[in-house]
Design goal:
By secondary structure, the protein is mainly beta. It has one domain (2-70): Ubiquitin-like (UB roll). Helix content is 9%, strand content 34%. The chain contains one helix and five strands. The chain has one helix at residues 25-31, and strands at residues 2-8, 14-20, 40-44, 47-48, 65-70. It has a five-stranded mixed sheet with strand order 2-1-5-3-4, covered by helices on one side. The model has no long low-confidence stretch (mean pLDDT 91).
């Protein structure tokens, strides 16, 4: 059975995505255009979703909101 989740860029843009519990996070990222997938972090409830896990592994439900952010390289300590 498929259902919709919401993908938010944190700036007010929200995409709806139809998923199944068996879909991987990687395939969901690809379906929404977040490629290469390892350049993007998907988060829910403060946790980062792993590309190799499935939607069902995270017990995502209808209208759950995933927040997307670009991976950022570390740097020097703030001076």
């Amino acid at each position: 059975m498929s259902f919709n989740i919401k993908i938010s860029d944190g700036k007010g843009q929200i995409k709806n995505l139809q998923v199944k519990n068996s879909d991987t996070i990687r395939s969901a990222k690809t379906a929404t255009g977040y490629i290469p997938t390892n350049s993007w972090k998907w988060k829910i409830d403060g946790g980062v979703l792993s590309d190799d896990k499935t939607i069902g592994d995270y017990n995502l439900e209808e209208d759950d909101v995933i927040v997307v952010s670009k991976n950022q390289l570390g740097g020097d300590f703030y001076k």
